[in-house]
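Hey, quick one: can you model this chain's 3D structure?
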Amino acid sequence: MSDTATKVRDHYDATGLTDRIKSALATIATESETLTAAQLAPLDQFHTRGILATAELGTATGLKPSMRVMDLGCGIGGPARYLASTFGCQVTGVDLSPSFIDAAAYLTARSGLSDRVTFQVGNALRVPFEDAAFDAVLLQHVAMNVEDRCGLYGEVHRILLPGGKIAIFDLVLREGGDVVYPVPWASDASTSFLLSEEDTRKTLEQCGFKAVFWRDDTKVALDWFEAFKASAAPSALNLGLVIGPDFPVISRNLARNVRENRLGVLSAVLTRD
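Sure thing. Here's the predicted structure for all 273 residues.
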């Protein structure tokens, strides 16, 4: 593993994460109760706009029960579980963080979805799957941690069937100034590799993808930040369990970066040639 990948893994990896989640869940359900996507949404959707973004991206991708889907950079598995339960597809989650994968497997078992959703530790630049193994690959707030963007998109191209789809929900550079750190994906610029929207599209096209859906979601994200701030109430389940005590600071910085046009939010679906 490269030094950068190790730094990225260490940024996310959290000792005792599954135990903290178990303790928080005990306030809303017994260990024997099956959990729903709605119950877990405040905790397991580690990206801007939460479960709403996952729902829209799954619909835009046209997922079907027969499809094999990879959630690359899956975190603790919220999007993977949502896609499997909503669209009926088989989903494989891959993430660099062992603690995330451990928590993802636990939450999936608690949700009764272990027959349709599996997880394993892996590097997005070298995923342990054969060529053309998947119908769709989901990337939500993942690419900004990957310096070798051509390597990332090339690996997705490799594991997709011809005509398969890559669905991305990403943060892109804007012209409002330097990014303010820390943010959810990085403590500083050393593990943050953002591209502009134009360069993102150019790189995807160079790697053999053609856009079928491309949308600027920055305004929608800003509205979501405002609504979240206005309605947020104390809860045992929140992203602070995953991110740690710096969650209030980094979430404010993310909202600030988008509000000040330092960052934009992009949703897109592209097909593999």
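One thing worth noting: Residues 218-231 form the longest helix (14 residues).
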